[in-house]
Design goal:
Blueprint (H helix, E strand, L loop, with lengths): L6 H17 L42 H14 L7 E6 L2 H15 L4 E5 L5 H8 L3 E5 L9 H10 L5 E6 L11 H10 L6 E5 L24 E5 L1 H5 L5 E6 H5 L4 E2 L4 E2 L10 H38 L12 E5 L3 H6 L8 E5 L6 H15 L9
Parallel strand pairs: 2-3, 2-4, 4-5, 5-6
Antiparallel strand pairs: 1-7, 6-7, 8-9, 10-11
Helix pairs in contact: 2-9, 3-4, 5-6, 9-11
The structure holds pyridoxal-5'-phosphate (PLP).
Pyridoxal-5'-phosphate (PLP) binds next to helix 3.
């Protein structure tokens, strides 16, 4: 067996590295923070570490980092205002797995339940609902991306006999909109619906809202039953990861003990990354709460700057309060070659992550204005 790559294969890796170096800072359309340094953790890549099983239950596989995972989860429980000693969670492979977990718990609690989610919900959610055969109804969105609460109320009224599973966007993918849990809870109370489950998809904003002065209603204290947050988005990581938390009483109803791994089978994945919890732990410890707040506040300030600069060029840009997602009409095709943008229908967005500096924003705005000179403008709401 050769122990080294042949020159052609070596060249392929070099080319890939060069391409990624050139493109990473132009990633402005997807919420993936590129500004991190995990070099202190490289030495752990020599082990086949694995966090298979329940992070609180222990496992026969001793090459794990569950002790660090539990500390990460405790921090996230604090950020999401989970009820003390009444929560459970694990480090996931990303926001999608966390959403799947929340919907799985909900379906186990309410096998006949109907899931309600808005038009602006991430595309993966419809797939998860199909996978687990959960009945579901799409609710209209408002033009700003929030769920249309009137449509939710009317739809719930028609199905009052069936427990609702509300899938709330806490920072929608395209517009950064937050579905207000206070309004959703009020509608449920108004309709006297006692049996309901709310899952909060806080993929991006779950690491923003804990660090702002006036957050929208989004977390456990506002009535969520489970919350999913991506780790590679606001915090930043080279490998996709995330955290899911749920009320413990719900989880206890679905746990099963598996002898082979010596662990409770509470997670969706069997083998789970033991490196991801280390990265999240490293990030949380090096930044601390004050560092996290500073990082978020700086992004919000630069998002504001981006709105102003775009508007100064006559581009109809806007953003929600507490959101780093700056929305504008879909940029001309010529912009897509240089910039990594995620357009959908008539809109595009710039997501101001920590690596999106004012210099990058300036360059983006200049390119956008230049490209528009040759193309017609469209509406963005
Ligand atoms: C609102 C929302 N939910 C879920 C996801 C999926 O998260 P992940 O890519 O971490 O699986 C995304 C990804 O962009 C998202 O924006």
């Amino acid at each position: 067996m050769p122990s080294h790559l042949n020159p052609a294969d070596q060249q392929r890796l070099d080319d890939l590295h060069e391409r990624l170096c050139a493109q990473s800072l132009r990633n402005v359309g997807y919420p993936c923070n590129q500004a991190f340094d995990y070099s202190e953790l490289f030495r752990f890549l020599q082990f086949s570490i694995n966090n298979v099983g329940d992070p609180f239950g222990g496992t026969n596989y001793r090459l794990n980092t569950m002790e660090f995972e539990r500390e990460v989860l405790a921090d996230f429980a604090r950020f999401t205002r989970a009820p003390a000693d009444e929560w459970w969670g694990y480090v996931t492979s990303g926001g999608t797995e966390g959403n799947m977990y929340g919907l799985y718990v909900a379906r186990e609690l309410f096998p006949e339940g109907i899931c309600y989610f808005s038009e602006d919900t991430h595309y993966s959610v419809a797939k998860v609902l199909r996978l687990q055969h959960t009945r579901n109804i799409m609710i209209k969105s408002q033009p700003d991306g929030q769920m249309d609460y009137d449509d939710l109320r009317e739809t719930l009224r028609i199905h009052r006999d069936v427990p609702p599973i509300i899938f709330a966007n806490i920072g929608s993918t395209m517009k950064g909109a937050v579905d207000d849990l206070a309004q959703i809870r009020a509608i449920l109370d108004d309709l006297a619906i006692a049996n309901a489950y709310i899952h909060a998809d806080a993929a991006l904003s779950g690491m923003i809202l804990p660090f702002v002065d006036a957050p929208q209603a989004w977390n456990f204290a506002d009535g969520a039953d489970s919350v999913s947050i991506s780790g590679h988005k606001m915090l930043g990581a080279p490998v996709p990861c995330g955290v899911v938390l749920a009320r413990k009483a719900h989880v206890d109803r679905i746990a099963r003990s598996i002898e082979y791994i010596g662990a409770l089978d509470t997670t969706i994945a069997g083998s789970r990354s033991a490196f991801a919890p280390l990265m999240l732990w490293h990030r949380l410890r090096t930044l601390g709460d004050a560092g996290l707040r500073g990082m978020v506040q700086e992004c919000l300030e630069r998002a504001d700057y981006a709105v102003q600069q775009l508007r100064a060029q006559g581009i109809d840009a806007w953003r929600h309060p507490n959101s780093v997602t700056v929305v504008f009409p879909k940029p001309p095709q010529s912009m897509m070659e240089k910039w990594i943008i995620a357009p959908r229908k008539k809109i595009g967005h710039l997501i101001v992550m920590p690596h999106v500096t004012t210099a990058i924003i300036d360059e983006f705005v200049t390119d956008f204005a230049a490209a528009l000179n040759c193309e017609p403008r469209t509406a963005n709401r």
